[in-house]
Amino acid sequence: MPLLLLPMVFSDFDEIIAQTRTAPVGNDLVANPVPTCWPVKDQESAHARAKWHLERQRERFLQDKTAFYLKVVDTDDNFNIAGIARWHYYPEGYSFETHGHWEKSNWDTSVDTTAWNWELHDRILELRDRSRESWMLPAKSPCWILTHLVTLPEQRGRGVGKMLVQWGMECAVKSGLKAYLEAGVMGMDLYARWGFGTVGEAILIKDSYGQVLFQMAKMVYPTK
Ligand SMILES: CC(C)(COP(=O)(O)OP(=O)(O)OC[C@H]1O[C@@H](n2cnc3c(N)ncnc32)[C@H](O)[C@@H]1OP(=O)(O)O)[C@@H](O)C(=O)NCCC(=O)NCCS
């Protein structure tokens, strides 16, 4: 079944949201840390989560000039979207002051917060983004950053993730720049296999007892 890498278009976001009305719970394209901070048990909450998340991505698609949204479709399966990624090109390097606002949840009172831990979500992303200027060195130099990567669970292991990551790796090589990412537990080994190297200590988000709630490895490509 041939896979094809394409830029996302505006209507893709609504298509992805709509799929969560019928797909098995959790078989969606919601990227971490949202699933960690908003676990879902039924179709209604899975749809609410996807709607919240993907509508924000749609807004960013229109407004954030640094963002490149990509999808991999299965040409033998009605061009259904198997995975998506968001790469960024920062021509003046990443600046938390300029770009940090994008990741705030802007908590919406219409969302049921019994399951949605938006404070943890904002804490994870703020720590991730604030630390960038300390390890994506030299600070404020042009770079590529991968911030969103997810393949539908039923499509995993077919090379979708690799296609989405390699797009940005090739951009980095062609432009003579570095590509960076903060890898969750599921992605770390894959990125290392694909050529990324780890930089320094992992970013750890802990609760008040010191227990690790979320961790991210800081990674760079190429390593030299
Ligand atoms: C991480 C993730 C994006 C990988 O996507 P994917 O489309 O399965 O990735 P690929 O198929 O390109 O690569 C998976 C690798 O595992 C291997 N693999 C083998 N069997 C597999 C299986 N059953 N499931 C997954 N991977 C398998 C593949 O061969 C491939 O190895 P290779 O790079 O040596 O060829 C996907 O697991 C995911 O969406 N996870 C949840 C979100 C997440 O954690 N995102 C990353 C945040 S940093």
TrEMBL record:
<dbReference type="InterPro" id="IPR052523">
    <property type="entry name" value="Trichothecene_AcTrans"/>
</dbReference>
<dbReference type="GO" id="GO:0016747">
    <property type="term" value="F:acyltransferase activity, transferring groups other than amino-acyl groups"/>
</dbReference>
<dbReference type="InterPro" id="IPR000182">
    <property type="entry name" value="GNAT_dom"/>
</dbReference>
<dbReference type="Pfam" id="PF00583">
    <property type="entry name" value="Acetyltransf_1"/>
</dbReference>
<feature type="domain" description="N-acetyltransferase">
    <location>
        <begin position="68"/>
        <end position="221"/>
    </location>
</feature>
<dbReference type="InterPro" id="IPR016181">
    <property type="entry name" value="Acyl_CoA_acyltransferase"/>
</dbReference>
<protein>
    <recommendedName>
        <fullName>N-acetyltransferase domain-containing protein</fullName>
    </recommendedName>
</protein>
